[in-house]
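Quick one: co-fold with fe (ii) ion.
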Amino acid sequence: MNDLASLDDLLALVARGAGVHDEPEIDGLFHALQCAANLSASHPGDPDLIVAGLMHDVADIAFPDDHGDHAARGAALIEPLLGARVARLVGAHVVAKRYLVATDPAYRARLSPRSIETLQLQGDALDPSEIAALASDPDLEAILALRRADEAAKDPAARPPALDAWRPLLEQVAR
Ligand SMILES: [Fe+2]
Ligand SMILES: [Fe+2]
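Sure, here it is.
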C-alpha cells in the first residue's frame, strides 16, 4: 500500500497529510511545509536537509494510527526515492530530540505538549554513551537543524509555500 514508485506518489502521500493530525492545532501537510520552509531559510544550500524537513513525519501520514518508530519507518519509506542522506536525516529526528533534551537545558521547554508526551515513549533524554555516539556523527549539525526546524514548524499562523513549490528541489535530490 505504501510502495512509492515515483515522486508523484510521494507528493500525493504528503498531500494526504492535510487530513492527518499528530499535533492538535496543525495538520501533517502544514507541519511538513513549515518545516521545509524553515530549513530553506536557515540552510538554503542544503537541498537534502530541506527535503528531509518536508518528509520527516511522512510515516505519520502513511500510517496515521501508529506513531511508533515513525522516524525509522519514514526513512525506510523515502530512501529508495530520495537517497541515503535524506533517509538518515529523517531517521535521526527523534534521537535528535532526545539529544537536545539531554544537552540543552532550555530545549525541553520549547517542545509542544504532544512532543513532550511522545518523548516519554521514545525514551526521554539520551544517556551519556548515546550522546557521545550522536555527537561524533559527521552530519550532526544538519540532524540538529532539522529537529529545531521541526519544533518551530508548529505555528498555526505561518504561511509556508505550497507543496508544489518543492517539486523542483525534490527532483534535484531524487536524481
Ligand atoms: Fe516526528
Ligand atoms: Fe515533526
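If it helps, The domain at 7-174 is CATH 1.10.3210.10 (Hypothetical protein af1432).
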